[in-house]
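Hi Y.,

Following your request, here is the sequence exactly as I used it, all 671 residues.
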Amino acid sequence: MYTSETVHRYPRTLIWSIEALCTIVVAISAINLGSVILRYAWSNFGLDQALFLRVPFLVAIVDWIQGPPGQRRIDELTELLPTLWWAAIALLLVILVRNALPTVRTNSQGLLVEFADEWLPIPWENLRAVKVTGDIAGERFVILVQTDRKKLTGWHRLYSLFYRLGWRPGFWVTSSISDFDNLVKTVLSESKRIAHLIDNVKPVQLDEGAPSPLFRFMLGPASFFSQAKATKNNSDNTLTLPDQAMYGEQSAAYAGPVQGVYPARITTLLTWSIIILAGLTVWQYLLYWARFLALELPLIRGVPPFSWVFAQAAYVELVNAYRTNPVPFFGVAGRPDLPQPWWLLISAHLLVLFMIGVLMTLRGLLPTLEARSEGLAVRNLMSNHWFVVPWSHFATFKATEFSEHSQVLLLQIRNAALPWHYRLNSLLYDGSFSRGIIVTSAMDNFQPLLQRALFEVTSIQAKRPPRPNDPPLLQQEARSWLLWLAFMTGAALDQLIEEARDDVKNRAIQTAPLLRAAGSMTWLALPLPLLLLLDMILLRGSVPGLGVFLGAIGLWLVSMLEWPLVSLVSVLLDETGGSGGEEGYRAVYLYPAAQLPRLLPWIALLTLLVAGVPLLLLVVLWIGALAWSFLLAAGLWEKLYGWKGSLSLLGGLLPVLWQLITLLILLLVQR
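Below is the corresponding structure, written out as tokens. Let me know if you'd prefer a different format.
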């Protein structure tokens, strides 16, 4: 019988990181809420300046809270509601995140789960389900332990809700907790023991058939976009070119169409992303018109949504200058920094065009496919229209393999058989601009459909004379470094370094690999200049001058400096405190490629910036990009140089520090 008590805790660094994050969120929410309440109090009851001469820095603090001279006054209590709403959401998230990874104690009576610095008892007979989600390698897990409805607290229902839209109370356990395997074995064995002793109690089972889409994605996007398990007829997903001597037999086997459809977890994610972004776009478009009409029609300025224009200091200054008259259509003479009504309409339609491109790209990102005798039929998400691409138009099949059951392919075509936005698929995959279709192994009938496509294309190529410049049809080594590094960072870094070490000459500076690295760094340096341009062209409401474009070019050059500075500093650190400079200048070639995945959160940030999401979410994405940059750099130095401890930490902080400096320059340019 199990009698001893065991305590299972998470690593201190993980818990301290969560505590620090929660503290920062609470502090920011409190400062924001406090400043709004003080502005309301000062607007209605006045500001006592008696302490200004006695307390240092008090004037500066008050000026910061009050904002710029044109800042709108807060006169009504109802105007505090948006800030109160966001503060409540922040506190709710803090409560959930702070208690998401509790310490767990086990004994002969049951479990003790920590929540809000208290212990909640759960007898063994009150356990109802143990659901597990694992990564693609089977090394990391997240488990949801669910109990009777009267156990735990109402907050714990939200953990089941986030896990898989359940409503039974539960708590999470991850594989990073101490003695994870024994904890799971204890839960299962004790539940089985109690079931033998007490009637009407069923032992819980480890349920691997209901994984959490959220945690499956967080544990590794490669797992989210891979097959749940290999089927009997699809146990080997390795693609090979068909045997030309067996064309007749294979042609008979491929008599009918083969259709590939993605599972609901993927189509639902993409569908709701499109719906939300489309809704935000329509809302932003209407707000631009509201701003325009509020400036041109003074009589409606006090009516929502036209009154919302006064939330920005520049619009307040305009309205104060033209209280009873419309603002000049082409703007105020001599004040190009103020919003201009005509440019608001231009910006609104540029915003719509930008978002249409984003939405069309999402619709065609992972389409339904059907291999037919005449070609590959493509149907976009949320569409009933099929595009048929003749087999003769296909040029290459580029493959990136994450694992035995997780692959991504890019099917590139030669001409305009598909809409223009399919060029963005190739751009995402490997930076090329040909029209292409991205296919992942999460698709049903993935292997039969691709083998059918390979058979059809090779059979056509066999009937015509070979072309000297034709690339190989199936390119197993044409990997997408962006996707591979994002989904399988460790394996991708190992391969990247191994390929660099195969060439001894890479220890010195060479022109060809240097130009390839410069190409990757060109993309990495684009986000901040694009952020400046999108802000000045679409969001400010005023015509951008030549200085904005010159500033964007200068910001791009400053961002490019990250490459030589970080990589050369790493070389110096390795010579003095690492391996003694055995790797030479390989870091110069490897660093840009290793940092490519940080483009993904930046793409999301720029899209959501244009869509008008709250600033807090944009800050979270920016912090995520910095954190990913740190992890990628630290992983590169660890695998390339063997750095550990403080040296690895310093190496990971190098790109973060430079990106913070670049962001500071951006803020100065925007002033």
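DSSP finds 23 helices and 16 strands in the chain.

Thanks again,
Q.
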